[in-house]
């Protein structure tokens, strides 16, 4: 799940409650959305400094359509998560939990109503994720092209920052599970292989060549070359980071099977392009999310009964 900006939720929710209280004073209905009235005060609240009435009206209508989609989705909110977010909101605003309650009370907002509004925010995120998540498709080629573009722009602007991080040279021996080799047997076999290497009965390279089921690295003494730890799956990455250089790890399991490994060397590697790849990926995903979300709201509008009243 993505990080939630709890500070923005705090002020957005407060603004929403202030708006609701003032909206009650103005009862003029300017539109209906599937029978739900849109008040003129709602539109004015969303007009901002530019005073674009139609833009503000469309936004209110879109918000109502999304809220209706949430109600029709049947998704249930996890209130333990809601309570954690409220605690985070208090901390982000430099408040204790009690001070947050006092702030709500000062604004005339009941805690239960505030809690429900945050629950609605979470539900809105969930239904949007369901509606648009499967439509996001970022290719490796797109990421590579944009990352190089961003890096070149940074170089031309003189804002490029070289970023380095440790790379680890690793060798390993892999045993894959099969009908004749279960977890306990694989672990025991690697424990014996490790003991034989430590005792000098065979070298790591010979053991990898003879036993490893990663045949490509096994033919090269088990060597995987230099790489950043995050290039590997979680358990393998953890073993790299927790095993001292020159020490053979205890047997551990990954999705590929059972391993032992040895870190044979370390060096500083250039991670600059990796950072720009991440930036490129995030930009591409965010743009696609915006585009797909617009299409989703358009579809909600197409299937809705919207009436504009003069």
TrEMBL record:
Keywords: Chaperone, Isomerase, Periplasm, Rotamase, Signal
Gene Ontology molecular function: peptidyl-prolyl cis-trans isomerase activity
Organism: Pasteurella multocida
Signal peptide limits: 1-25
Top-level taxonomic group: Bacteria
Keyword Chaperone: yes
Residues annotated as domain PpiC: 165-265
EC code(s) of this entry: 5.2.1.8
Name this polypeptide is given: Peptidylprolyl isomerase
InterPro entries associated with the record: OMP_Chaperone_SurA, PPIase_dom_sf, PPIase_PpiC, PPIase_PpiC_CS, SurA_N, Trigger_fact/SurA_dom_sf
């Amino acid at each position: 799940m993505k990080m939630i900006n709890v500070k923005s939720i705090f002020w957005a929710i407060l603004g929403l409650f202030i708006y609701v209280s003032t909206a009650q004073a103005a009862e003029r209905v300017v539109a209906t959305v599937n029978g739900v009235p849109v008040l003129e005060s709602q539109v004015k609240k969303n007009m901002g400094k530019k005073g674009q009435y139609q833009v503000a009206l469309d936004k209110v209508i879109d918000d109502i359509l999304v809220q209706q989609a949430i109600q029709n989705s049947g998704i249930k909110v996890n209130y333990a998560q809601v309570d954690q977010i409220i605690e985070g909101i208090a901390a982000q605003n430099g408040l204790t939990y009690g001070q947050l309650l006092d702030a709500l009370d000062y604004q005339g907002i009941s805690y239960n109503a505030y809690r429900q509004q945050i629950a609605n925010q979470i539900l809105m995120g969930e239904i949007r994720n369901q509606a648009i998540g499967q439509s996001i498709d970022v290719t490796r080629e797109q990421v590579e092209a944009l990352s190089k573009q961003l890096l070149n722009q940074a170089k031309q602007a003189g804002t490029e920052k070289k970023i380095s991080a440790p790379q680890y040279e690793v060798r390993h021996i892999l045993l894959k599970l099969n009908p004749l080799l279960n977890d306990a047997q694989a672990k025991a076999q690697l424990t014996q292989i490790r003991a034989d290497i430590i005792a000098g009965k065979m070298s790591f390279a010979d053991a990898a060549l003879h036993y490893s089921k990663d045949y490509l690295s096994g033919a090269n003494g088990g060597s995987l070359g230099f790489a950043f730890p995050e290039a590997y799956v979680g358990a393998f990455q953890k073993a790299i980071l927790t095993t001292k250089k020159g020490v053979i790890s205890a047997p551990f399991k990954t999705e590929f099977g059972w391993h032992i490994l040895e870190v044979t060397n370390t060096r500083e590697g250039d991670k600059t392009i990796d950072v720009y790849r991440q930036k490129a990926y995030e930009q591409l995903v965010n743009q696609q999310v915006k585009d797909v979300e617009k299409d989703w709201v358009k579809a909600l509008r197409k299937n809705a009964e919207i009436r504009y009243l003069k």
